[in-house]
Amino acid sequence: MSGPDFCPKSRGVRRGTALALVFAGVLAGAAATDCLPRAERGPAALPAAAALGPNEGRPVRDADRTAEEVSRAAARAEADGKSPVRAAEEAVGRSGDRWGAVYDKAQYEQYAASLDGRYTGVGLWVGRTGDGRIEVTRVQSGGPAARAGIEAGDVLRAVDGWATGGQPVTEVVARLRGDAAGSKVAVSLRRGTRDWSRTLDRAVLDTEDVTVQNLSAKAVMIKVAAFTTGSGERVRAAVSRAPKAAGILLDLRGNSGGLVTEATAAASAFLDGGLVATYDVHGKQRALYAAAGQSTARPVVVLIDGGTMSAAELLTGALQDRGRAVTVGSRTFGKGSVQMPTGLAGGSVAELTVGHYRTPAGHGLDGQGITPDVPVTDRPLQHAETVLSGLGGAS
To answer: What is the CATH number of domain 210-334+357-390?
Structure first.
């Protein structure tokens, strides 16, 4: 399954695909922007300001100069009647910032809405099968797709007449999402031997990034798909509501990252205060701390994989470094560069790299990722439950 992706993509990724990834909020589990506290942003900053993006551990070079050059390029283009977005993209490419990205005004508004846990779409999660078909993997309750009778397991054959077979999931998602709530999209589906079509009205929907499942009387699984607004408090509430004897299986597989402040709030569900991460912005050191007063008695196992990114890695690193959780799965993605926005001509925005994050023990995430305590690729959930049982948190 693919997932919401709010983070800038490598300069090698074509713009259309990158933006499809950026706004693929109907899915769960690709890369997401990681935003700093608003106090760190300064007067020119915009909503959903700073982001983590892979920069292969290289030092940030002349970030201020890059911002100035990108701004000038956009302003010159607008004055000449050309596209400020295209000019800014070319300037970012020349700067060497592989993970810089440029959004026009409407795209940035969608980007901010995604970080707020909202997206415009039809309420479908999709994935590609081994034979290249696009299959519905989940349908959001109460959304347009659910009201039309679409179910998990249905094959999505076409979107507005465009055949989906063999196509990238991100492109399919981009076509489903469209641009505005209230606009229509026609979908063709197959269920068994039956082919059928529906026309859906797009709507503004919640991303449902935190889900809770009671595995047993002694094990509760909390799945976090991305750290959007309010997700940290939802994790805290889920831990608080869990039976006293239950351990927590925190599933961060495929977690696309998100707001750093929300990942820090989630850390506060498991840590009684203390350091969560350090980071630098333009060479100045900063730190993030968990809230005090939380119980640290519950056993915790964190499930991770190669799709665990950014803020999800920050949370994983904090719990692992501080001995608060056992991590199970495979090495995480390795995304730890800090990005901040620069407002450009015409209301467009450039996200540019300005620093890096580190775990409490000082380990850099960028290009490295996190190695699990218990590396497994086969049946990771079952292994995680076994580990939790050994810690006293499962039957």
So the answer is: 3.90.226.10
The pLDDT assigned to 7 comes to: 33
Q: What is the pLDDT of residue 61?
A: 56
Residues forming beta bridges with residue 380, ordered by sequence position: none
pLDDT recorded at residue 94 = 92
| Percent of the residues in the chain that have a pLDDT greater than 90, as a whole number | 54
Alpha-carbon distance of 63 to 283, in angstroms, equals: 11
Q: In sequence order, what are the beta bridge partners of 212? A: 222
Q: Which of 188, 335, 337, 348 is catalytic?
A: 335
Tell me the pairing of strands 203-206 and 210-216.
unpaired
288: nearest Cα among 50, 30, 4? 50
Q: Which stretches of the chain are DSSP H helices?
A: 15-22, 63-79, 84-95, 105-115, 144-147, 169-177, 231-241, 260-267, 311-321, 380-390
Q: Which residues of the chain have pLDDT under 50?
A: 1-59, 394-395
Active site residue 2: no
- Residue 141 has a pLDDT of 87
Residue 204's CB is within 10 A of a number of other CB atoms, namely 12
User: Which residue among 310, 330, 337, 348 is the active-site one?
Assistant: 310
284 counts as catalytic: no
pLDDT value of position 208: 79
DSSP letters for 292-317 = SS----S-EEEEE-TT--THHHHHHH
Fold of 124-206: Pdz3 Domain (2.30.42)
Q: Domain residue spans in the chain? A: 124-206, 210-334+357-390
300-304 vs 284-289, strand pairing mode: unpaired
3-class secondary-structure state, position 149? coil
